[in-house]
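step 4 of 6: structure.
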Amino acid sequence: MTAEEWTAVRLSLLIATTATLASLPFGIAIAWLLARGRFWGKSVLDTVVHLPLILPPVVTGYLLLLSFGRRGFIGSFLADEFGIVFSFRWTGAALACAIMGFPLMVRAIRLSIEAVDRRLEAAAGTLGANPLWVFATVTLPLCLPGIIAGAILGFAKSMGEFGATITFVSNIPGETQTLPSLIYTLTQVPGGDAAAMRLTLVSIAISMVALLGSELLARRIGSRRQAA
Amino acid sequence: MSLEVDVEHTRGSFQLRAHFTAAPGLTALFGRSGSGKTSIVDIVGGLIRPARGKVVVDGQVLVDTERRVFVPPHRRRIGYVFQDSRLFPHLSVRHNLLYGRWFARGSGGAAGDLGTVVDLLGIGHLLDRQPDSLSGGEKQRVAIGRALLAKPLLVLMDEPLASLDEARRSEILPYIERLRDEAGVPILYVSHSVAEVARLATTVVIMAEGRVTAVGPVLDTLPLADASDGGSVLDATVSRHDETFELSVLTTAAGELQVPRLGAPAGAPVRAYIRARDVMLSLRPPEEISALNVLAGRVAAVIPISSAQADVRLDCNGALLMARLTQKSVERLALAPGRPVFAVIKSVSFERT
């Protein structure tokens, strides 16, 4: 593999990992709100969270460009106040990936929170745990397999994200050129077939390792619960 | 300690209106299913917010709708033992037990350390197991221990034995008795089993259709309960064991009772529960009959329960005994208040609870 290809692989892993880890706390919070909350506008929140799943990725990318771009209302504020720039940076790619993977992540976590027996939470409350402690010591450990599944789904989605990323942060080698972007570029030039094939295999390998890893992790949590 | 409950609550078409004060010891909420017992326990535990009313434990106001007081469950210091033990599946027995204690750090209250509670409940060998691997009876004992270690001011038990078979029940009952007598924590105990209430309760609150119909000491109050296996409770002492026939002789205010051999040693206090339908009445002292127990008494009252049956309340030397008879027998024997009678009870009709 060429240096350019390695760079794209490393960049993709960095972007996907950052996107997954950074969005996980928000994912858990939103999933909890949707699973347990009773508030006005819950269905609106549900719809907004799911929007990236239904919208064409290019539309999501364009909306990101409008809002988080240099002249976008959020982008210019962040750049002026904090010096944080998303547009045409790898951080922007991570943001796009996080938003595209968010619905999948929230969905998996929400289902697992809904499956946690609320009577156990009530029992924890009578033992003196306030709602936050109940969440940390009962709800969270019991829905851990769902959280792992959600994180893996988000990671896999980030590894494959193309449309929103290329629209928002373009296809700059070394900065925003991810694995899918490079494969796309290689298929556009004569003689790029072999390299595209190599990267395709790398892409398949990474996805399978991620899936197997999550499977193993889930099984270990399950067996620890059965054991002793 | 004192517990005062005075609440009104509506759920669907069910209306709850209850007012009672509980004395120290074990207070049993007794009634058929759907009479509102669990709702009351949930209100005391903070799982239900009553529409109107007041709950006071030891002078501490937990709920007062007029003053808009509602203490959330985690600040009430009330141990709740649920019908389905609700142990945390991801924690070992040891960590289940210690869960509440961690939040109760530094605060006073009854029954302190792990060792004492583990010994009291006989669960030392289970500490490193996971809840999934426990039997129903073991789970309930761990659940009781978990509630106790949270240093509660009051323990709520919502039919803790209902999901268990007969053998498991008799395995746990002695532990609840020890809890009542040794741990010094007041207990509010929900049950629809007369036998359980007769054995455990200090005070009984009888409920029907969301109302409290009677409150008082178990000996006086339980016979008033409207139950299919209703009866009376006698305080007794084991006076001796008859090893030849495997019988135990009990001394009660009403006279001596011979019952199937008990495990309790001579001198131990026990309670005898005599179902009204197991009591036969005779106007003359019966001779040459198989039944071993004949108690002399007087009819105190005849309470018709239907056009076919009646409960006869007897005063046997100050102790209250109930007999359920047909209306036909009541008429044939001309049973009326003041009439001297002999109550006949077969020894085999006693069951161990």
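step 5 of 6: annotate
 - The CA atoms of residues 171 and 177 of chain A lie 5 Å apart.
 - The longest helix of chain A spans residues 3-36.
step 6 of 6: archive
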